[in-house]
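With this grant's support, we have settled on a layout for protein records. One resulting record is reproduced below.
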Amino acid sequence: MPDPGLWAAQTTPRGKRSDAIVRRTRKLIPAALLALAAAACAPSTGADVTAGTKAAAPLPGASIDANFSLDALVAAAKKEGSLTVYDSSGDIEEVAKAFTEKYGIAMEGVKSDTPQTAEKMLREHAADNVTIDAAMYEDGGVLVGQLIPQGVAKTWVPADLKEQIPAENHNPLLALSKATIFAYNTKLSPDGCPVKNVWDLTEPEWAGKLVMQDPLGKPTVLSFLTQLDAHGNQALEQAYQTKYGKALETKEKSAAYEWIKRLSGNKPVLTGSDEDISGAVGAPSATEKKIGFMSISKFRNNEDKGYAQSACEGMQPFVGFSYPKYVAIAAKSRHPNAAKLYVHFIMTEEGVKHEIGEGGISGNATVKPLVTPPGLSDWKGQLFHTDPKGLLGDLQNRQTVSDFWRLNHG
């Protein structure tokens, strides 16, 4: 196991991570993901891992309090006095402020990458020394493949909001959906995105001009690649036909793997943060046309920093991908009622608006989108969507995809 000190949660300010942290994270995460995947897939007897991947045990059912009272929950939470919630987004700090202002309960929101959060929760649970009360998870595979089945985390659904949350979003509980999109600099390309097709990014003219997070350190990007192979091959084949006027021929296992091979071999610039991507693509000082594959949360830089960014509207067969963000409670939380109250809060517009302020969709169907990022007018039609039913498959297949990416990256 890695040194616990190396897995301490990173709490640097939004968008500001030192080079040392980025380098260290890149080195540790691939091994951590492999360890997590093996643990999730292997039976408790220590039998062959492959055998454990064939039939996953059903998730424990979501907990729903039969005699729910929000007033009673608030009173119980106030007696507990505080809570700590981990999230991969710095937006959790704004959520924490709003929660504390509303309920008078001290909430600490900690920005921490999902793999580090999962590792910390595993260690705390084993040591009976839990400091994380609840967490937001972008890595649904680890959540459904390990944390929930092993009893480290659990799903709780607010009874008074149950009917507002589609049944398929109950277990695990979908708090919101975010997106990672291909973006360009509107000042350098005033006539629109210079890339019209995802296969364009595999051509020599775009070598070294795609800036993206390293998939080996970003679970959502890795999940996107595994999901492409699961249910995106037809769309990729059609896009290839559109661009080249002929059917795709490949020696790889699928169109997805052929695209991954060509993309990774075309020298994409890999970073450790979306903030770096946004700066490389949209900053006022940018002089070279580049395409960024980044979170829509970075569109805040258009207003905050004077950046010129837009999604590659019309790009075939998709502009980017959406991914789910779940909320779960630590099974051994020392502030269980405060954790429940947080879950209730994040499942309402009052709470989730701080997470979807730059774009996103709440898991509560009654909460309407607040902002449409430039170039992303049709969330449903423009994006490749993560299939929640494939989360466990993502976890089981990610090492194969990781190795394939590593082998072909130029």
